[in-house]
């Protein structure tokens, strides 16, 4: 089963970007969700819905599941 939320460390490993870039992407995703009127959890470290993040990046479910084992519970 895939995690519902992803943090910057997991995202950086999954897509091969720096932790800073992953954090910026997560913050951007959370801002987009908030602007749509959806509730955004403010956590430390910041997290975002895994499915939404990968849809935004244009990465398919099978692709991101196989990219790293960190996305499984």
List the helices and strands and how they pair.
Elements: E1 5-7, H1 8-15, H2 19-35, E2 47-49, H3 50-57, H4 61-67
Antiparallel strand pairs: 1-2
Q: What attributes does this structure have?
A:
73 residues; mainly alpha; two-stranded antiparallel ribbon
Question: How does this model look, in words?
Answer:
With 73 residues, the chain is mostly helical. The chain has one domain. It has helices at residues 8-15, 19-35, 50-57, 61-67, and strands spanning 5-7, 47-49. The chain has a two-stranded antiparallel sheet. The longest helix has 17 residues, at 19-35. The chain starts with a strand and ends in a 6-residue tail after the last helix.
Summed up:
Helix content is 55%, strand content 8%.
Average predicted confidence as pLDDT = 83
Which range does the strand content fall in? 5-15%
Could you list the spans in which at least 5 consecutive residues all have pLDDT below 50?
Answer: none
Specify the biggest β-sheet: 2 strands, antiparallel
String of helices and strands: EHHEHH
Helix content: 40-55%
What number of domains? Answer: 1
Question: What's the β-strand tally?
Answer: 2
């Amino acid at each position: 089963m895939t995690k519902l939320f992803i943090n910057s460390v997991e995202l950086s490993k999954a897509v091969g970007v720096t932790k800073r870039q992953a954090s910026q992407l997560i913050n951007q995703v959370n801002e987009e969700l908030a602007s749509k009127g959806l509730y955004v959890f403010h956590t430390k470290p910041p997290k975002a819905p895994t499915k939404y993040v990968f849809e935004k990046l244009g990465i398919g479910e099978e692709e991101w599941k196989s990219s790293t084992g960190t996305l499984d519970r």
